Task: structure prediction
Amino acid sequence: MRTIAVIGATGYAGAELVRLLNGHPGADRLALGSTSKAGESLEGLYPNLATKAQAGAASGRLLLVSPSEAVDAADVVFSAQPSGCAEPLAARASASGKLFIDLSADFRFGGDEATYEAWYGKKYAEPALHAAAVYGLPELNRQGIAAARIVGNPGCYPTASSLGLFPALRLGLARREGIVIDAASGLTGAGREPSRSTHYSDAADSVTPYKIGSHRHIPEINAALSAMAGDGVEAVFTPHLAPMGRGIVATIYFQLQKPLTAAELREAYASFYAEEPFVRVLPEGAVATNRNVRLSNYCDLSLHLAYGGKTAIVVSAIDNMVKGAAGQAIQNMNIALGLDERTGLAMLPPAF
Amino acid sequence: MRTIAVIGATGYAGAELVRLLNGHPGADRLALGSTSKAGESLEGLYPNLATKAQAGAASGRLLLVSPSEAVDAADVVFSAQPSGCAEPLAARASASGKLFIDLSADFRFGGDEATYEAWYGKKYAEPALHAAAVYGLPELNRQGIAAARIVGNPGCYPTASSLGLFPALRLGLARREGIVIDAASGLTGAGREPSRSTHYSDAADSVTPYKIGSHRHIPEINAALSAMAGDGVEAVFTPHLAPMGRGIVATIYFQLQKPLTAAELREAYASFYAEEPFVRVLPEGAVATNRNVRLSNYCDLSLHLAYGGKTAIVVSAIDNMVKGAAGQAIQNMNIALGLDERTGLAMLPPAF
Amino acid sequence: MRTIAVIGATGYAGAELVRLLNGHPGADRLALGSTSKAGESLEGLYPNLATKAQAGAASGRLLLVSPSEAVDAADVVFSAQPSGCAEPLAARASASGKLFIDLSADFRFGGDEATYEAWYGKKYAEPALHAAAVYGLPELNRQGIAAARIVGNPGCYPTASSLGLFPALRLGLARREGIVIDAASGLTGAGREPSRSTHYSDAADSVTPYKIGSHRHIPEINAALSAMAGDGVEAVFTPHLAPMGRGIVATIYFQLQKPLTAAELREAYASFYAEEPFVRVLPEGAVATNRNVRLSNYCDLSLHLAYGGKTAIVVSAIDNMVKGAAGQAIQNMNIALGLDERTGLAMLPPAF
Amino acid sequence: MRTIAVIGATGYAGAELVRLLNGHPGADRLALGSTSKAGESLEGLYPNLATKAQAGAASGRLLLVSPSEAVDAADVVFSAQPSGCAEPLAARASASGKLFIDLSADFRFGGDEATYEAWYGKKYAEPALHAAAVYGLPELNRQGIAAARIVGNPGCYPTASSLGLFPALRLGLARREGIVIDAASGLTGAGREPSRSTHYSDAADSVTPYKIGSHRHIPEINAALSAMAGDGVEAVFTPHLAPMGRGIVATIYFQLQKPLTAAELREAYASFYAEEPFVRVLPEGAVATNRNVRLSNYCDLSLHLAYGGKTAIVVSAIDNMVKGAAGQAIQNMNIALGLDERTGLAMLPPAF
Result:
């Protein structure tokens, strides 16, 4: 009997974890932690989660308790709270040797406290925990994740961006200078709280760039790309809000070290990701889009060339709530627990 | 030189008045009143309203002042504040004989204070003003509006519903019992303030009924229909939020007193509205939809029969911000000022 | 080893069957039949269905063959072709005693050939097959389905409408006269083929009624309601296209035989459906919406009263592709095969 | 009395011209040409264009005639047919000295027949007409347009792209190498004919790049940018379909010759466009979006920096049907006829 805690269960990432863990054979019981709603039922906020169709679905199965209570009850802890809250929970979980997977930015920067502080305005209270944490991008750090007790689950934009560039940087196909990442996200990326930018009458029927040059995912993207390239990368990254629910579509531009044919570029990517269960390199003529990965843990990549093979354009598409958050977190749990990495994540995306 | 005041200019109805009056030849100057934003410029909230393309467009043309300052500067006053605020402004305007057109519910119930109090929780402070007010549905009360100094501009749902039923009730074609009005509104109807129901991730990709049996437009609809029928009407009305920006589509069901053919029903409606500049009775085979009236002052009506002509189904479509609010208010102003009723309202709707 | 055939796999209902059967433990192999695309792979049309994440997912697993070839290879046959095509397939399947579940209208009318012919323009070629067929609404006909070899899977609108009225009609709460069903469907209901009404620039940002008084689901709705009431019912039904992907939201109006309180009405419905795994009667204050049932087999019902309990308003929401098509078909298969009815259908809907 | 012809009136660009010319004081009469629908009324295809609200609006005002008949009846000719059709009409109009404005690509390449042939697969039949034609971007070629009799109206993407880069290239702020233009278009850009990519269930709720490296606007963009820079420019351009009706949002990346502050960059752009009636350079902190320019002839530009002022990011937003097609064509007509350039184009965009 394994109990899984989800802290911050009332936010979108937390609720998505609950939904996905509901069908995970390794999640026997859930312990749901919430700072603001302890004592209530998650079904009150998310009536979609009420179940009649599952054998033995007990009333009260989605009761919210305090975060510490949830941590103590669990064997594995997911934290889906806003950045800045994870250290005490990680300390509590680690003290009893529990696997701790954080979906905020708090454990994504490892030993680089300076960058974390510059972008998130906070120092590390527990540097040792950060030193032990692993950046949870399985395609990059699978072995480290398998051995980790603290995982910093990547951001949604960094996941889509990194997977789109990993083969090109690791294989030395791309020049490190002049990389441009132009990405669109659906509105779920903005979370559950209403705001001006998520107001239907502002968000619908329009595309709007935001936080140009100042989005907090910039240092995370650069850190991941630098790890892949083995040297410093500074990419230009511009996020956009697009009128869709789920999905990130990143259109990534880079210069090739030497011109390649489309077939050569595709073959390089396809070989690189051949054994990856959640990265699909699309055939020639196809273009990646969030529509084909929605509600799944897939990252779709399509590869294109311009100007005679000097410039490569890679389109990378994920579901921001799944491969960009809850699904990848479960993938990390599976790896760290020694389960088949695909457990609970084999769902096919609905295209319509 | 005529100055037009718009009180509550920062809300959607107010901002729409500003946009439409911008092209109205009888509106030489605007005086914009706001309780919360006096001293700011409306362009700060609505960058779309910044103009370079109009001759003589002065900087500062959209400065917000206090409501009373705006009233005093104006010849005609539109008030687009929430219900419950209009009486003091109406008193101030009336004291100097200015035309006052209120877009809230405050002056829609005339002498029927009991109904107003029951649904809006407030007594009349100035009964004499209400006794003098006219319900501003031009198709029903054109002569009264022409003579009025206070106009209660109808709600959006009541406008669509009333125009869909007026010929059937006035001509005695419809039974008064058993009328069902099932209506969908776009999200602009919920106004500018973000909320749970206007959060993109809640509103998009779904249709949701709301305030079933309790929407405040119910008594207004019944009052208008009763005035049309010459006797009491109690319609069942259910509003829905639909994922669109502008528009109301009301599907209206009623029993015919005696069976009619489709041609007879259409002829009755077409004759009834023949001289109305803003009501289009569609030809056979067409179905009314908000798409064809968006951003215009039109009300489109299509007529249908079921079960051998015993039941009629009328579809009524308007733009909730124009014929359902700001456009109809300008139509009322035109009538009350003796201008051509169509002045400033001749724009054709874009269908795409 | 059980092989399941899906005929008409390239349409939306067929592709949805493939997606859902992919996770069904009783579906060991698929045989995919297509008249027009035999020899191709379904992944060419639906790249979302390509899988890397499933153990043993063989290349060529989604090869399309001819319909008869698929029937012959299978133990159970789903047919998702357009109405008018099912009889020969049903005959072929029945000849070898295979379960045949048809998602078109062909087997929904049982012995009532006259109604089928009047609305679908075709006589029965095989009356005996129709006499043996069962209308596949599990909540109404579970025992019949368990014994059947041919199931006529209900239409999407009839499913939502029938489930919203079943307790009221069976328990004698509702008057049979004057029922109005006003329903909105998402665009997936219009299928995969592009057309004027599914063109984004026509369909987006608008609500449009269609086929008023002439939709082919009218006789099916009336037949189901009459079976529930034990007497003839003629409901007025108006479908609308709404700008959403999946979902039907039916707002249903009927007169109560005698006034009820909200609690009484809810209790009647809740008791009636207490053991139904896929019908959720919502608590007071909640309103059913497609958002909370998307991608699940649930039907959500919310109950409302108007005018002192004389008129009831029931909102019924389903996913048109799941409970309205492929999910209900699998539910029928489960029943007919003696499996747990919920097998492969326990997924929770994502609300965002 | 001036008669304006619109050839290809049934397409979106043509219908938008009809809608905008309806309120243009210099357009006394319209002559509507259509190859496929001559003899019909445009209102049959676009019921939104039926008018009751305009004084003297005659029945039959929107009758479609043959293209040549429309040309002969007119003083000014707009052609909005697909590329490849304009030469014979241009010849016919020019023979009688009529102003001819073509919204297709046929007259955008002037003397560069090689590029036109390479991308459009057709040689010039009338080279002299092309030699006399002017590329109709008023901000670049106002004087030439004033003297022209044939105007090649720019494409939508080239308009947004060019206006976003014009000051930077003309003033020598930008390096000509490494320019990336990442642009999203609404679905109206795909025209009126239903297709797979415009099918609601494919287009909604997703962002999809298309024609990467092969879009026909690439050579037009490069030609315009080269004219602005005074030297050859090869930009990388990627278009995306986004789920919105109208609008293009282009996010443009370039390297600065030397680092600038945000204020310096903004001042350079604002001064450059100070007298342009339809280009709005947004204040600091604002971000351009299609929402604020919809249904208007404005181009909004916002300016941003990354990495200490080495990289500039310009966001350029237009309505693809107005500044990107019909509105700019009318602007060109105004210039060529010596009218105030803003005539008929002063409408303010609705933001909601």
